[in-house]
Description:
The complex is a heterotrimer.
Chain A: E1 4-10, E2 13-19, H1 25-32, E3 51-54, E4 57-60, E5 73-75, H2 88-95, H3 105-118, H4 124-130, H5 142-155
Parallel strand pairs in A: 1-5
Antiparallel strand pairs in A: 1-2, 3-4, 3-5
Chain B: H1 3-7, H2 25-30, E1 45-51, E2 57-63, H3 65-68, E3 73-77, H4 88-97, E4 102-103, E5 109-115, H5 118-126, E6 129-134, H6 141-144, E7 169-177, H7 180-185, E8 189-197, E9 209-214, E10 220-224, H8 229-240, E11 247-251, H9 267-277, E12 281-284, H10 287-293, E13 299-308, E14 314-324, H11 332-339, E15 349-356, H12 371-388, H13 393-400, H14 419-427, H15 430-433, E16 440-449, E17 454-462, E18 468-472, H16 480-492, E19 499-503, H17 520-547, E20 554-557, E21 560-563, E22 574-575, H18 576-581, H19 583-586, E23 590-598, E24 604-614, E25 621-631, H20 638-657, E26 688-693, H21 715-727, H22 738-748
Parallel strand pairs in B: 1-12, 10-11, 14-15, 18-19, 25-26
Antiparallel strand pairs in B: 1-5, 2-4, 2-6, 3-5, 7-15, 8-13, 9-10, 9-12, 13-14, 16-24, 17-18, 17-23, 20-21, 21-22, 24-25
Chain C: E1 2-4, H1 9-17, E2 23-26, H2 32-37, E3 45-48, E4 58-61, E5 64-68, H3 73-77, H4 80-85, H5 87-95, H6 99-102, H7 107-112, H8 120-126, E6 130-135, E7 138-143, E8 148-150, E9 153-154, E10 161-167, E11 174-181, E12 192-200, E13 206-214, E14 221-222, H9 224-230, H10 237-250, H11 261-282
Helix pairs in contact in C: 5-8, 9-10, 10-11
Bound molecules: flavin-adenine dinucleotide and FE2/S2 (inorganic) cluster (2 copies).
Amino acid sequence: MSKIHVTTTVNGDTVEYLCEPTETLLDVLRDRLNLTGAKEGCSTGDCGACSVELDGRLVSSCLVLAAEAGGKTVATVEGMAKGENLHILQEKILEHAALQCGVCTPGILVAAKALLAKNPDPTEEEVRFWLAGNLCRCTGYDKIIRAVLDAAAEMRGA
Amino acid sequence: MNMTKRLRKTEGFKIVGTRPQRPDGIEKVTGRALYGADLSVPDMLHGAVLRSPHPHARIVSIDASAALEMPGVRAVVTSADFKKQAKFFMQDTLDNCMARDFALYDGHAVAAVAAKTRKQAEEAAAKIRVEYEILPHVTEVEDAMKPDAPILHAGRSYRNIPEGNNANVTNYVEFGHGDVEAGFKDADLIVERSFKTAATHQGYIEPNACVASMGPDGRGELWVTTQGHYMVRDFCAPFLGLEESKLRVTPSEIGGGFGGKTTVFLEPVALALAQKSGKPVKMVMSREEVFRASGPTVSSWTDVKIGMTRDGKITAAQAKLRYQGGAFPCGTIALGAMTAFAAYDLENVQALGWNVMTNRPMQASYRAPGAPMAIYTVESVVDELSQKLGLDPLEVRLKNAAKKGTKSSYGPTFSDIGLVATLEAAKNHPHYRAPLGPNQGRGISCGFWFNFGGNSSVSLHVSPDGTVAVTEGNPDIGGSRASISMMAAEELGIPYDKVRTIVGDTNSIGYSDTTDGSRVTFTVGIATIKAARDAIRVMKGRAAKVWGIDEDAVIWEDGAAKPSGPNAGEFPPMTMEEIARNAFKTGGPIAGHYEANSDGAGVSFGVHLVDVEVDPETGFTKILRYTVFQDAGKAIHPAYVEGQMQGGAVQGIGWALNEEYIYGADGRLQNPGFLDYRIPVASDLPMIDTVILEIPNPGHPYGVRGVGETSIVPPLAAISNAVSRAADVRLCELPMSPPRVLAAIDAKG
Amino acid sequence: MRFESPATLEDAIHLLANAKGTARVLAGGTDVLVQMRLGLVTPDLVVDIKGIPGMRDITPVDGGYRIGAAVTGAEMGEHAGLKALWPGVVEAMELVGSTQVQGRATMAGNLCNASPAADSVPAMIAADAVATIEGPLGLRLLPVAEVPAGPGKTTLTKGEIITSIFLPARPKHSGDAYLRFIPRTEMDIAVSSAGVSLSLGPDGMVEFARVAIGAVAPTARLVEEAGAALVGTQLDAATLDRMMAAVRAACDPIDDKRGTAEFRTKTAAVMAKRAAKTAFARAGGKS
Ligand SMILES: Cc1cc2nc3c(=O)[nH]c(=O)nc-3n(C[C@H](O)[C@H](O)[C@H](O)COP(=O)(O)OP(=O)(O)OC[C@H]3O[C@@H](n4cnc5c(N)ncnc54)[C@H](O)[C@@H]3O)c2cc1C
Ligand code: FES
Ligand code: FES
């Protein structure tokens, strides 16, 4: 069983890794690239804690083989803030106290960012359905939804 | 200076009651915060657990020889690698972590392996040969109480168990006062119902995880996601025969616990593997392992009988509660029997409870453990009585509500409590009068939780630049570092951003009880305020020394020492920054500390209002509107108080509608994943409105009551009452999943 | 396990046809990776088909659309033409999993995974969709209904790959719809489901209708009697009752953790009724 050599782009940087064929993108991000922002809540696609963007598409990184990432671009929560400047979504999540334990937060942020890129002016219902695959057990979602709607408004300059 | 105001402050706050950003916020939104599974250390091994596929079996033999020969394998442990415990509770907890002689439920750990990679460890675990002698099993409470039921352990029953119970019944409790039989005679209407609730899981998103290392000198290090690192040490040190202070336990950031991380599962196993292999060992549960082998709640079977007069006065109330708490004895039944009628002022009340063992995982706490399923049954019957008597269900509750001076159903007499005010707030809220459409119903329920006090340590260090570092010993599960910083800043009279609070490991701060019982903002709050006062005392002394006046002639105001009056002398205020800067010249570093051993936590009540719509063709329930009313005593950081109210409500919604442990006839758990263990998702819910009431708790300097747990108590009955009214048929079993609701609708004809 | 991502269809077929042990096609992987993770399959070979030219295309053909086997649910939802022609099929595919799953899951994968509860399958059967299958012996076309053989089993033979699925053109005044019953609003597997496709005649009456049901039998199935019941009507109450009775008669479900047989049967009929009304309205029907 030989390892696979993969070259890919993560948060704008070219990275290379060797992986087992059965390893997932989540395994590689966390265990080989030391990017532990994406969390493993289930490893079966049910919780969204491992959300990343792959070539601009929101995916669960636990459901992507690491070998598939070759030649693609991966964006994780670690790439959201630009230097000292938080992304507006990050600011709004903090401002609205939209996290308690915070373990779902990286996945929610990545998912919400993908939503606002596609739909800058979502309704509450659209936000709720878009985020239905991001489980949060602490907040009851209320403050998360408010934070995303508020961030959307601010990003539209409203 | 007004001394009473100093000791108890309920108004005039500068920082308390505002909504600043939490100190750990940036780490958490950037992905930098380290949770249980996020730590890796050099030369680390990975552990995997072999679990019993049988719900009940005698372990005849374990042969690990093939596993030990697998590539990368460094150690295998079984129950033989742990020290025998003298106390039942300790031995039970250890046996739950690693089966000794008997596998008692599907998923019970039987052996564990450490290897170079997780995959190697898993493959090796699968190669361990266990010979089982399969025994008959039982998973349901009503079956486990039958005379011919398979017995989990003989000889574990307390002596007060009434005749006629088998050995699975371990605990029996009785609470109440008055004469219920006489009371029932005075009733105009009696409703008697039998209820069932399924076992649920805390559903924390972060699986249990830890990294352990052990030296040959008996010194150990444990990094772990837990609600209580001292608790982890309390268990692990004796399990491995270590001295407590030699085992340093460091809590990671915790990705949810809700009571589920108030005990140990992997931790002693990881330490044993580390001890045996001489290398650090990381262990992380899969989601399936979390469901099969951590600690879900009890499931329950309860009969309730309540009598009421035509005008809504309860004359007598009785409950018989039976909880199954899994494979070992457990005392949660007492909490259920105590809370069942706590919201009422009753002359005649009786609550009886039985704990029953079954072939399921040992239950763990889940937010107000034991209370939701008890109060659900009582609040359902009160609602049905109100409905049948044509009375407003809220007025009926007001009429019978517990208040200051009420002798509670579990014994003590209540002091200042906020139930009536909370009910009044619900009554006056527009939600209560809003019109309902077809197939819609409104439900209401009260909820109650004791709240705990207990032990916590805080040390507060004044840095040379006058900023403050607070170290406390309670893992932060929902923003408590913010509230603690706020209380320190408030007391010291300095800005919030001059204080930073961290959670220390077991060797860097004094003992602290687990983060549970809604106790942290209360108890750590007391310790923080008193530690701040301790530091203020020191700083006043320093100012007195510089000014050459008596210490008693110095007061502390707005973050500065001042002479107490013209007689004390004419000096300009000396700020904390100045005092800190000169500390080395005036007597050395400045710190304050306090080790709390508190009671007076102050019970808390909540009232929930919910509107639902039931689809008569499918039995599907949609939550239309939800409002939580709760007494917080004093909301230090209101946004995080609201968060607790919302989060608890939504967990309760899940419990009411869809969450359940489903065991097959084979005794195996059928739904160990988030696909079929259905916790609420964002699209299932409306916004959860909150109304915080502040009826100060006399037991806390700022009036704080715990807020974390009460909010999961009312949703079960509130939703059941709403569904029952919407569908025009009484539902008496949780969850009210669509098949169950549709069957009830169809049965009504 | 060996991982391959061939650049041509020939290579993919060759790899699969000559594989020893267990081989799996990898499209979106949302079933394959879960099954690997839970230890339900341990493939010796995984062949990623996403790099094969044409697999990711939605192509207009003869007034219908050919959907490449690697096209994701999200891409289908973003295709205006496809959505206008077969809104029911697109909505069925969009019900599959979360937004994250949508970014990967394919309709061909949904079909080949052969779950009785697969969401897109009843909608495709109602739409009379046809799968293009290529293998060592060449190309064949197979109606979608004939691909699943039972839970987890298909009629594909060793080395065969579905390369695309064809959704045909349809007359004016046509509509389709798909509905499923789940206990939550998202993230559940269908407890029962129904897809309906119908066309109206010049008189505004249903001229042609197909009703298919899912999660109530070992495979999704077409209920001819249910479709026939709708023909010549404007979906009056009595018609819908007849259609629902036909649906219930065609159900052969199991009792399991997701629902009792009785519940599945009842709700399948309710889903069919509601889907029929939506399809009728989409076709421009007035009752
Ligand atoms: C969280 C979650 C939620 C889900 N929810 C739903 C749901 O609501 N409804 C639903 O129906 N499903 C659901 N699924 C299952 C899954 O997402 C769908 O079945 C999906 O459509 C599968 O497509 P895929 O491309 O990911 O398939 P893959 O996993 O790539 O493949 C599935 C199977 O089909 C085979 N296969 C794939 N493509 C081809 C081909 N072109 N030719 C031959 N064989 C092929 C594979 O070998 C494999 O056996 C869910 C899955 C997850 C993880
Ligand atoms: S870990 Fe990937 S979805 Fe849960
Ligand atoms: S904040 Fe804890 S899971 Fe979302």
